[in-house]
């Protein structure tokens, strides 16, 4: 009973009943048509006519209501064109045309609604992955609660086959976690103590105890769903243009039909013009493609902020990348310790370096502290002053400690000749920092970061996707940057950049006529991301800032998602152009056919709705697996 009630309220009930009435009308006309008593203005009115007129009224009622509502808002809609044509056809006794036009138009609306529901299927899938319940440890017992009732800091058990109900940090246990709903990656990721897990992912074995850090609306999954909802509703520039065009086009069609009727004295011709000139396919052509494209991207761990950014991404010709953490693993390791003072050992140099770096948040601080191990600083710096692009200046137990480039030491009047000679002997892929205490350079610390295995494939894929230049923007030395560029296929290198220099580099690329995408972490590179035409955040899972602020957020840390995102944008815009061309050509041919003769009102509406269906099916291709080269 519930299913029947839902179906009666759905989009297909009225078209079904109307189709039955039309078939009944034809059957009555063939078998035993009966002339009914009718007002004089209706002329000869039969039982078949009654069935056909009833079908027309049934299907046109909703259309007329929408047209009137639009008029009250001072909008001349497509529904008004169909309403005028159907009412006009009925008044001149052409009940079949009135019924056929409104039935086909209603079917078209039902198809559009069904298609938009289908294109939003990725969002539906995301919502479906949201966990309902959680098992929480309270007072030493396992308590089953709704996922939204979990509190931050509580310990949650995740058993084999269960959905992870919260964002959190693994406290104990081991388990492979299927993160496809978040990152689009199909291969489960092994999780153990201190690893991050996300709500909506699924345990494929083992048992995890997770400390909740994000619950309910604060989870990564909830943020992704919110972003996709906003993105699918946001209008692209092309769609906004079509909406403005329709506001002028529709009244122009009414005026053309009126003039045609007055000049030719042919009411049927005028009404036919109203029907076949409907820009229905044109209006649906863009939103259905945008929704499908954004939905397919979300399904594969690529969040696109909206149609505007999708269109801009299709024009990207230059991609700018940071080196550390993007082209490289972002986990540099200590490779060399060189002493410049005979009285000091390598361990002494390392301890002074570790003491200076103990208060630094720079990525190169960690490998120094890790290498120090048991020799980690027993002294904490009283003051740490980072010098962007040059190094740091620390004060440790009253001793000034400098770590950085020769330029940093030169600023403080410390000789660098011996240090620079030692630097020349290091491999070009290593980042070296001179260590100086007070006024003396005592040694050199060198670290190196491994190039990510998929970096060369990513650069190659970007070139295949039509990107002219892949540019590296890094604060590292030219030697290190050039080495990484040579191994990955980077086209341009801009090294030794301060944060503000990255902005200038992007602005320069834009002045050269390029549409520039900047790839960063969404936080440290925020100014550069904002300056670029498209800001892309890598590895955005768990970063609310990246998900909310980036134009495109790649949820996983898979570099190959970057060319995938650009290919998808280009494919979607291509579909939009195809749809617009189909729509315009169809209307032009129908108008020509009307004036040439042979195109009736019902035939015109049939062809029109076929063009709507073609446009819809064309957009649906974006949802097919592998249709846009996306990698699982």
TrEMBL record:
SUPFAM superfamilies: Calcium ATPase, transduction domain A, Calcium ATPase, transmembrane domain M, HAD-like. It is a multi-pass membrane protein. Residues 130-229 form the P-type ATPase A domain. It comes from the Bacteria. InterPro entries: ATPase_P-typ_cyto_dom_N, ATPase_P-typ_P_site, ATPase_P-typ_TM_dom_sf, ATPase_P-typ_transduc_dom_A_sf, ATPase_P-type_domA, Cation_Transport_ATPase_IB, HAD-like_sf, HAD_sf. It holds the Pfam family E1-E2_ATPase. One of its GO terms (cellular component) is plasma membrane. The chain crosses the membrane at residues 12-28, 40-63, 245-263, 269-295, 580-599. GO terms for molecular function: ATP binding; ATP hydrolysis activity; ATPase-coupled monoatomic cation transmembrane transporter activity; metal ion binding. PANTHER family: CADMIUM/ZINC-TRANSPORTING ATPASE HMA2-RELATED (PTHR48085), CADMIUM_ZINC-TRANSPORTING ATPASE HMA4-RELATED (PTHR48085:SF5). NCBIfam families: ATPase-IB_hvy (TIGR01525), ATPase_P-type (TIGR01494). This is Heavy metal translocating P-type ATPase.
């Amino acid at each position: 009973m519930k299913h029947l009630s839902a179906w009666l309220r759905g989009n297909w009930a009225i078209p079904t009943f109307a189709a039955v009435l039309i078939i009944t009308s034809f059957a009555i006309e063939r078998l035993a048509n009966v002339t009914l008593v009718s007002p004089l203005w209706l002329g000869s009115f039969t039982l078949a006519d009654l069935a056909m007129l009833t079908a027309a009224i049934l299907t046109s009622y909703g259309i007329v209501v929408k047209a009137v509502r639009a008029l009250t808002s001072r909008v001349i809609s497509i529904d008004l064109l169909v309403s005028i044509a159907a009412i006009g056809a009925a008044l001149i006794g052409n009940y079949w045309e009135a019924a056929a036009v409104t039935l086909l138009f209603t079917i078209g609306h039902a198809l559009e609604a069904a298609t938009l529901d289908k294109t939003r299927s990725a969002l539906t899938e995301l919502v479906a992955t949201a966990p309902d319940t959680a098992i929480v440890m309270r007072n030493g017992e396992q308590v089953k609660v709704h996922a939204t009732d979990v509190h931050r800091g509580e310990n949650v058990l995740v058993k084999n086959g269960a959905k992870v109900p919260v964002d959190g940090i693994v406290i104990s246990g081991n388990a492979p976690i299927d993160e496809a709903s978040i990152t689009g990656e199909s291969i489960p990721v092994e999780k153990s103590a201190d690893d991050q897990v996300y709500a909506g992912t699924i345990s494929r074995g083992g048992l995890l105890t997770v400390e909740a850090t994000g619950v309910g609306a604060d989870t990564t999954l909830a943020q992704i769903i919110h972003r996709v909802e906003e993105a699918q509703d946001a209008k692209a520039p092309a769609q906004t243009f079509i909406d403005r065009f329709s506001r002028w086009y529709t009244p122009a069609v009414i005026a053309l039909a009126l003039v045609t009727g007055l000049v030719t004295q042919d009411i049927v011709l005028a009404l036919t013009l109203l029907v076949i000139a409907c820009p229905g396919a044109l209006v649906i052509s863009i939103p259905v493609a945008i929704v499908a494209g954004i939905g397919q991207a979300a399904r594969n761990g690529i969040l696109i902020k909206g149609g505007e950014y999708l269109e801009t991404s299709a024009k990207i010709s230059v991609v700018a990348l940071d080196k550390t953490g993007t082209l490289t693993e972002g986990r540099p390791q200590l490779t060399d310790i060189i002493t410049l003072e005979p009285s000091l050992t390598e361990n002494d140099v390392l301890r002074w370096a570790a003491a200076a770096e103990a208060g630094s948040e720079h990525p190169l601080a960690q490998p120094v502290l890790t290498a120090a191990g048991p020799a980690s600083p027993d002294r904490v710096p009283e003051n740490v002053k980072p010098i962007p692009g040059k190094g740091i200046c620390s004060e440790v137990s009253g001793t000034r400690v400098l770590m950085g480039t020769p330029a940093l030491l030169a600023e403080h009047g410390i000789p660098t000749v011996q240090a620079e000679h030692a630097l020349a002997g290091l491999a070009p892929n290593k980042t070296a920092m001179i260590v100086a205490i007070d006024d003396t350079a005592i040694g050199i610390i060198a670290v190196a970061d491994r190039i990510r295995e998929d970096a060369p494939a990513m650069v190659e894929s970007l070139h295949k996707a039509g990107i002219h230049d892949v540019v590296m923007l890094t604060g590292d030395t030219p030697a290190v940057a050039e080495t990484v560029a040579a191994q990955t296929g980077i086209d341009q290198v801009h090294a030794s950049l301060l944060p503000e220099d990255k902005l200038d580099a992007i602005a320069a690329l834009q002045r050269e006529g390029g549409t520039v995408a900047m790839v960063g972490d969404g936080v440290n590179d925020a100014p550069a991301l904002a300056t670029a035409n498209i800001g892309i955040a890598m590895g955005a899972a768990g970063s609310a800032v990246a998900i909310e602020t980036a134009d495109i957020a790649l949820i996983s840390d898979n570099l190959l998602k970057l060319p995938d995102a650009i290919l998808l944008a280009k494919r979607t815009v291509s579909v939009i152009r195809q749809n617009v061309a189909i729509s315009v050509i169809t209307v032009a041919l129908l108008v020509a056919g009307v004036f040439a003769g042979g195109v009736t009102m019902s035939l015109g509406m049939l062809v029109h709705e076929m063009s709507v269906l073609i446009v819809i099916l064309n957009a649906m291709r974006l949802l097919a697996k592998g249709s846009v080269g996306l990698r699982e």
